[in-house]
Automatic annotation (TrEMBL):
<feature type="repeat" description="CXXCXGXG motif">
    <location>
        <begin position="161"/>
        <end position="168"/>
    </location>
</feature>
<feature type="binding site">
    <location>
        <position position="164"/>
    </location>
    <ligand>
        <name>Zn(2+) 2</name>
    </ligand>
</feature>
<keyword id="KW-0963">Cytoplasm</keyword>
<dbReference type="InterPro" id="IPR001623">
    <property type="entry name" value="DnaJ_domain"/>
</dbReference>
<feature type="binding site">
    <location>
        <position position="144"/>
    </location>
    <ligand>
        <name>Zn(2+) 1</name>
    </ligand>
</feature>
<feature type="binding site">
    <location>
        <position position="190"/>
    </location>
    <ligand>
        <name>Zn(2+) 2</name>
    </ligand>
</feature>
<feature type="zinc finger region" description="CR-type">
    <location>
        <begin position="131"/>
        <end position="213"/>
    </location>
</feature>
<keyword id="KW-0862">Zinc</keyword>
<feature type="domain" description="CR-type">
    <location>
        <begin position="131"/>
        <end position="213"/>
    </location>
</feature>
<keyword id="KW-0863">Zinc-finger</keyword>
<keyword id="KW-0346">Stress response</keyword>
<keyword id="KW-0479">Metal-binding</keyword>
<keyword id="KW-0677">Repeat</keyword>
<feature type="binding site">
    <location>
        <position position="147"/>
    </location>
    <ligand>
        <name>Zn(2+) 1</name>
    </ligand>
</feature>
<dbReference type="GO" id="GO:0009408">
    <property type="term" value="P:response to heat"/>
</dbReference>
<feature type="repeat" description="CXXCXGXG motif">
    <location>
        <begin position="187"/>
        <end position="194"/>
    </location>
</feature>
<feature type="binding site">
    <location>
        <position position="204"/>
    </location>
    <ligand>
        <name>Zn(2+) 1</name>
    </ligand>
</feature>
Length: 383
């Protein structure tokens, strides 16, 4: 049931903001824990009531018969078995111990908190590296501006549900193998609200909310990972009866990149190095994820599969901005076609470097390297 916030402050439902503030100040002076240590709970209650009634949005919910602080209880959302599910059976068995059959359940009120909403947004690796502003389209329930959430037409009022007499639920006795079992079901007429609207708002049909599509821009911070969600408080679904909106979650998905493979904050790429450059050593320029370039040092005698690390050219870490590293995997390329002069030079190279070729079988090499990828190796003499 909704708490009587006006009653807690001792003011009428039509009280002005000034009257509410005055009533709170007076009570707060009397009940403050420094003055009156025994009144701590009462002080908290009064403070909560003031916080609710001094917030126009929350006060509107109170005036509509709801409780903005009700949260996921009273059969809404928090019941793991869902309203009308297994929870009813447990309540039947344990009802006596918790102070009465169906105790604390009652009608759940028409004004209830809204559900969260979820939309997806797809980012390139460059956008993840730099952070991005993305336009999204959301389709959620919003407050009905005709009835302001009350669900009623003009000045008409809701009436107590005739089927459940306002209880929001219907009890029935059933015979089963357990003997006589009492079950409690949500009232099918009012769906647990306890009242019905005989003359509903023409725009929303009594729900107090309508669906609306809007576009908005959402800021995605640099360094997010696939599957992460950005939460936008209060941008989700408005609740039944114009209840406070749930949150909107924007879930990030990362597009595959043609060049870089991501590993946390580090990036990996493959760089092709001509055979001669791998043997003699060189410096190469590679593109980085943020559109710049970095210089790679290829040491003389570089072997295929060598990984060169470029510090700070990976992705920024979420929130800290400290950047990971770029790992360049060097792919040594042997020319497929060579002309006569190149062929002569290579033959000459073979002669001066000697004929010594160390043949290592796949098995023995794998054992020596602890099972890593292996291949035949041509060891140049003296290197
Ligand atoms: Zn309406
Ligand atoms: Zn009913």
């Amino acid at each position: 049931m909704a708490r009587d916030y006006y009653g807690i402050l001792g003011v009428s439902a039509g009280a002005s903001d000034q009257e509410i503030k005055r009533a709170y100040r007076k009570l707060a002076r009397e009940l403050h824990p420094d003055v009156n240590p025994d009144a701590e709970d009462k002080f908290k209650e009064v403070t909560t009531a003031y916080e609710v009634l001094s917030d126009p949005e929350r006060r509107r919910i109170v005036d509509a018969g709801g409780d903005p602080l009700a949260g996921p209880s009273g059969g809404f959302g928090g019941d793991p078995f869902g309203a009308g599910g297994l929870g009813d059976i447990f309540q039947t068995f344990f009802g006596g111990a918790t102070g009465g059959f169906g105790g604390g359940r009652g009608p759940r009120g028409r004004v209830r908190p809204g559900e969260p909403a979820l939309v997806g947004v797809s980012l390139t690796l460059e956008e993840i590296a730099a952070g991005a502003r993305k336009e999204i389209t959301v389709d959620t329930a919003v407050l009905c501006d005709t009835c302001k959430g009350s669900g009623t037409r003009d000045d008409s009022k809701p009436v107590t549900c005739a089927t459940c007499k306002g209880a929001g639920e219907i009890q029935a006795v059933q015979r089963s193998f357990l003997g006589q079992v009492m079950t409690v079901r949500e009232c099918p007429e009012c769906h647990g609200v306890g009242e019905t609207i005989p003359d509903p708002c023409l725009k929303c049909g009594g729900d107090g909310r309508v669906r609306s599509r809007r576009t908005m821009t959402v800021k995605i911070p640099a360094g997010v990972q696939d599957g992460m969600r950005v939460r936008l408080a209060g941008q989700g679904e408005v609740g039944p009866g114009g209840g406070p909106a749930g949150d909107l979650y924007v879930e990030v998905s990362e597009q595959a990149d043609d060049v870089f493979v991501r590993d946390g904050d580090d990036l990996h790429c493959t760089v092709r190095v001509p055979m001669v450059d791998a043997a003699l050593g060189t410096e190469l320029t590679v593109d980085t994820v943020l559109g710049g370039s970095a210089t790679l040092t290829v040491e003389p005698g570089t072997q295929p599969g060598t990984v060169v690390r470029v510090r700070g050219q990976g992705l920024p870490h979420l929130n800290s901005g400290v950047r990971g590293d770029l790992h360049a995997h060097l792919d040594v390329v042997v020319p497929k076609r060579i002309d006569g002069r190149q062929s002569d030079l290579l033959r000459e190279l073979r002669e001066v470097s000697g004929e010594e070729v160390e043949l290592v079988t796949a098995t023995s090499k794998a054992a020596a390297n602890g099972g890593l990828f292996s291949k035949l190796r041509n060891a140049f003499a003296g290197r």
